[in-house]
């Protein structure tokens, strides 16, 4: 288990303010936030590269706040991987063990074991400069894991690789985590990457942690406007909620109403994910709750189609290609929006955010 | 598909580009030509007989100057590295209070006219200044003022400043994250320096050392002031050239000049090779 308590560090224009996070033993935790949000400071404080201005870092029951990096037994993979360019892949992986004066046979065994796990055994004799981005990432991971770290720290591990490699590596990170169960702290600015690997997510902005929760919490129940924006819940509007059967009814600025199964009343902010908005070309049969509007714009994104619809307020919907009826839903056409009450998330309206 | 395409239109802009480039290149060639002219002038001046004489006969045979130059500048180099290596690492890695002031002081010996260094040494060592020379004489039995012993010191002052700059550049080019990772893998700060930064900076360090040495070798002003121009005593190559010239032995002076040009060319080539070659191991 690793715990930060009120961790604060100001470093030039970057800062981390009062970060209190508990990461359970064996958990894969991702700190998610835009560039410059203080993510890297968080991980570098844990790694021991910077001493925090305030607060404490605990690993298990040990307070490591004042320890130097070499006293912490943590596996650190920085953003650019920082592989040692003067050493072969094999010597890179074995570096930490060599410093610990492990015997050569044990170093060779451990190097072999990790390179097998990461599928880089064929690269062992190669110099670093000949490796691709994905290969570098695996070598850096193997090097960090070789010392059997108490916690694995990954700083934007997938930002330097191309889109396809990223998907593969996400799956890989997850697989390795399942196998080794090393407590992992991963920082990322990429939401898809985060969803793919995290047990739990913390969202950070301007050095302040905004929300900590499961991927589902963050994705479906963002705690504020910033988180909602960041996870691309594109329909975020203010409203007034009043009790109704099986939840609340929210009156929107345009006068229309939507229903929610949540039970928050008063001034609220409504969040609906675009993929939860159903777009119909004909008025639905039955008494289903619907919004009526006009298609303003469509954007073909390959697997999905993004649709902007004016229905009192501008709504955004994301429609899967097979469900897309292009003929009847072109620009200017009438459309009906069905928004399932269980997909309507509410949080208290915050004047500062409005 | 054998369609005949319309002929490509000739481009006036392309012609203007050629003129533009030619004009700029002319200035470059002008300067290169000037430098080459000087070297060629030197090369054609002494005849074979002068070369022979320079190394065999006369009061100050050239060998003495070459030997003294090599010895003193190598001592200056070793001293520069001993001081420069830690100094450069500190400047590259740590935030020092008063860093800009320190930085300026380091650059001072490079920027001030070299004779000023010599005169300042003279003042500091002389009896009316700090009397360092008398102190050395008393305590250790050797003096530096107007002695060959002073030459490495005069060279060191300028060369060390240069050395710190060059070595700092070498350390600056090493990503500090490599040290961070090394630390996280269990290295002490000393081990991280020794096992990661130093081997990675190796080529830059060697290149810096070579230039430092060349710098020490070319020192003239400080030596002239601090150690004097005494034949067969403080006669390093630049001083020897100066002495020969003063005595009207121009050819012999030019032979020395050409030797120094030769050394400069070799050091420059080595320096550039090391700088651009990347990691050797």
Molecular structure report:
The complex is a heterodimer of chains A (354) and B (281). Chain A has 354 residues and is an alpha+beta fold. In chain A, 24% of the residues lie in helices and 35% in strands. Chain A has eight helices and 20 strands. Chain A has helices spanning 39-47, 89-99, 104-118, 133-146, 163-180, 191-197, 215-220, 225-230; strands spanning 2-11, 14-23, 28-32, 54-59, 62-63, 74-77, 151-155, 183-188, 200-205, 208-213, 235-244, 247-251, 257-260, 266-272, 278-280, 290-300, 304-311, 313-320, 334-338, 345-348. In chain A, the strands form four sheets. In chain A, strands 6-7-8-3-9-10 form a six-stranded mixed β-sheet, with helices on both faces. In chain A, strand 9 (200-205) and strand 10 (208-213) form a beta hairpin. In chain A, helix 3 (104-118) packs across helix 4. Chain B is mostly helical. Chain B folds into two domains: 1-44; 58-273, MetI-like fold, CATH 1.10.3720. Chain B is 75% helix and 0% strand. In chain B, helix 3 (62-93) packs across helix 11, helix 8 packs antiparallel against helix 9 (189-217) and helix 9 (189-217) runs antiparallel to helix 12. The longest helix of chain B has 33 residues, at 12-44. Chain B is flat. Chain B starts with 11 loop residues before the first helix and ends in a 5-residue tail after the last helix. The interface between A and B is medium-sized, with 25 and 21 residues.
Topology:
The complex is a heterodimer of chains A (354) and B (281).
Chain A: E1 2-11, E2 14-23, E3 28-32, H1 39-47, E4 54-59, E5 62-63, E6 74-77, H2 89-99, H3 104-118, H4 133-146, E7 151-155, H5 163-180, E8 183-188, H6 191-197, E9 200-205, E10 208-213, H7 215-220, H8 225-230, E11 235-244, E12 247-251, E13 257-260, E14 266-272, E15 278-280, E16 290-300, E17 304-311, E18 313-320, E19 334-338, E20 345-348
Parallel strand pairs in A: 3-8, 3-9, 6-7, 7-8
Antiparallel strand pairs in A: 1-2, 1-4, 4-5, 9-10, 11-12, 11-14, 12-13, 14-20, 15-19, 16-17, 16-19, 17-18
Chain B: H1 12-44, H2 48-56, H3 62-93, H4 99-111, H5 114-125, H6 132-140, H7 150-172, H8 176-184, H9 189-217, H10 221-226, H11 237-246, H12 250-276
């Amino acid at each position: 288990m690793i715990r930060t308590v009120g961790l604060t560090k100001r470093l030039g224009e970057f800062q981390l303010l009062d970060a209190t996070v508990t990461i359970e033993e064996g958990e894969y935790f991702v700190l998610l936030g835009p560039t410059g949000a203080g993510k890297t400071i968080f991980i570098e404080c844990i790694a021991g590269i910077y001493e925090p201005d305030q607060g404490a870092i605990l690993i298990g029951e040990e307070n490591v706040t004042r320890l130097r990096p070499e006293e912490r037994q943590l596996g650190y993979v920085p953003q650019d991987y920082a592989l040692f360019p003067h050493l072969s892949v094999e010597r890179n992986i074995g570096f930490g063990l060599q410093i610990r004066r492990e015997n050569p046979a044990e170093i060779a065994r451990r190097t072999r074991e990790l390179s097998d796990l990461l599928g880089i055994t064929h690269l062992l004799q190669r110099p670093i400069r000949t490796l691709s981005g994905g290969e570098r990432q695996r070598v850096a991971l193997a090097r960090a894991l070789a010392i059997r770290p108490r916690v694995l720290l990954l700083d934007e591990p997938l930002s330097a690789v191309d889109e396809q490699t990223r998907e593969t590596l996400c799956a890989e990170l997850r697989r390795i985590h399942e196998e080794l169960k090393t407590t992992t702290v991963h920082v990322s600015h990429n939401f898809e990457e985060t969803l793919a690997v995290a047990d739990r997510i913390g969202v950070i902005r301007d050095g302040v942690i905004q929300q900590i929760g499961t991927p589902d919490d963050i994705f479906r129940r963002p705690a504020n406007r910033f988180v909602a924006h960041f996870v691309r819940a594109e329909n975020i509007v203010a409203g007034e909620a009043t009790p109704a059967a099986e939840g609340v009814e929210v009156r929107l600025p345009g006068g229309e109403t939507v229903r929610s199964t949540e039970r928050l009343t008063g001034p609220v902010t409504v969040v609906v994910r675009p993929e939860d908005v159903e777009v119909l070309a004909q008025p639905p049969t039955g008494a289903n709750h619907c919004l009526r509007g006009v298609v303003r714009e469509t954007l073909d994104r390959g697997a999905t189609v993004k649709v902007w619809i004016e229905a009192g307020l501008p709504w955004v919907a994301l429609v899967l290609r097979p469900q897309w009826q292009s003929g009847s839903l072109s620009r200017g056409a009438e459309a009906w929006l069905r928004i399932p009450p269980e997909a309507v998330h509410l949080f208290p309206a915050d004047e500062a955010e409005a | 598909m054998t369609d005949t395409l319309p002929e490509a239109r000739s481009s006036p802009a392309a012609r203007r580009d050629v003129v533009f480039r030619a004009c700029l290149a002319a200035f470059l060639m002008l300067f290169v030509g000037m430098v080459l002219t000087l070297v060629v002038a030197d090369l054609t001046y002494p005849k074979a007989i002068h070369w022979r004489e320079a190394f065999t006969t006369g009061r100050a045979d050239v060998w003495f100057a070459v030997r003294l130059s090599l010895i003193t500048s190598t001592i200056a180099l070793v001293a520069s590295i001993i001081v420069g290596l830690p100094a450069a690492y500190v400047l590259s890695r740590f935030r020092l209070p008063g860093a800009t002031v320190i930085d300026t002081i380091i650059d001072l010996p490079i920027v001030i006219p070299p004779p000023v260094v010599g005169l300042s040494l003279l003042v500091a060592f002389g009896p009316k200044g700090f009397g360092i020379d008398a102190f050395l004489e008393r305590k250790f039995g050797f003096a530096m003022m107007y002695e060959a012993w002073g030459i490495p010191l005069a060279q060191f002052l300028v060369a060390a400043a240069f050395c710190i700059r060059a070595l700092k550049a070498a350390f600056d080019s090493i990503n500090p994250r490599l040290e961070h990772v090394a630390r996280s893998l269990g290295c002490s700060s000393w081990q991280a320096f020794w096992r990661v930064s130093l081997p990675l900076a190796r080529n830059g360090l060697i290149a810096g050392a070579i230039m430092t040495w060349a710098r020490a070798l070319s020192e003239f002003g400080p030596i002239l002031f601090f150690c004097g121009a005494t034949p067969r005593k403080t006669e390093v190559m630049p001083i020897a050239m100066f002495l020969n010239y003063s005595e009207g032995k121009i050819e012999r002076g030019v032979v020395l000049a050409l030797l120094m040009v030769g050394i400069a060319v070799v050091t420059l080539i080595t320096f550039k090779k090391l700088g651009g070659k990347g990691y050797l191991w």
